[in-house]
């Protein structure tokens, strides 16, 4: 699983970072970006889903691994 933030949609509410600081970094304006390549470490999948569900602009996307 990976997370991704659409920079065109993100308006800097920072909810994703508040819910999953291990997965998201903020710039000086509060806009989020996935840390690293966006890979979600084992055990943080629920936090990733919670962050996506709480984004008011639907800027946080979850990309499931193809198996």
Tag the structure with descriptive keywords.
21% helix, 67 residues, two-stranded antiparallel ribbon, alpha+beta, Alpha-Beta Plaits
Characterize this entry briefly.
By secondary structure, the protein is α+β, with helices and mostly antiparallel strands. Helix content is 21%, strand content 21%.
Structural classification = alpha+beta
In percent, how much strand structure appears in the residues? 15-25%
Query: How many domains make up the 3D coordinates?
Result: 1
Could you name the CATH class?
Alpha Beta
Radius of gyration: 11 Å
Task: State the assembly state of the protein chains.
Answer: single chain
For the record, give the distance between the C-alpha atoms at the N and C termini, rounded to a whole number. 11 Å
Number of helices: 2
In CATH, the architecture is 2-Layer Sandwich
Shape: globular
**Percent in helix:** 10-25%
> Runs with pLDDT <50, length 5+?
none
Largest β-sheet summary: 2 strands, antiparallel
Q: How are strands sequenced across the largest beta sheet?
A: 1-4
| Secondary-structure element series | EHEEHE
Number of beta-strand segments: 4
CATH topology category name: Alpha-Beta Plaits
- Average pLDDT: 96
Give an overview of the whole structure.
The protein is α+β, with helices and mostly antiparallel strands. The chain has a single domain, classed as Alpha-Beta Plaits (2-Layer Sandwich), CATH 3.30.70.20. Helix content is 21%, strand content 21%. It has helices at residues 15-19, 45-53; strands at residues 2-5, 24-26, 32-34, 60-63. Strands 1-4 form a two-stranded antiparallel sheet. A two-stranded antiparallel ribbon has the order 2-3. It is globular.
């Amino acid at each position: 699983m990976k997370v991704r933030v659409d920079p065109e949609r993100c308006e800097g509410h920072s909810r994703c970072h508040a819910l999953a600081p291990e997965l998201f970094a903020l710039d000086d304006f509060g806009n989020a970006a996935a840390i690293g390549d966006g890979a979600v470490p084992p055990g943080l999948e629920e936090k990733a889903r919670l962050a996506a569900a709480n984004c008011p602009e639907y800027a946080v996307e979850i990309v499931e691994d193809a198996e």
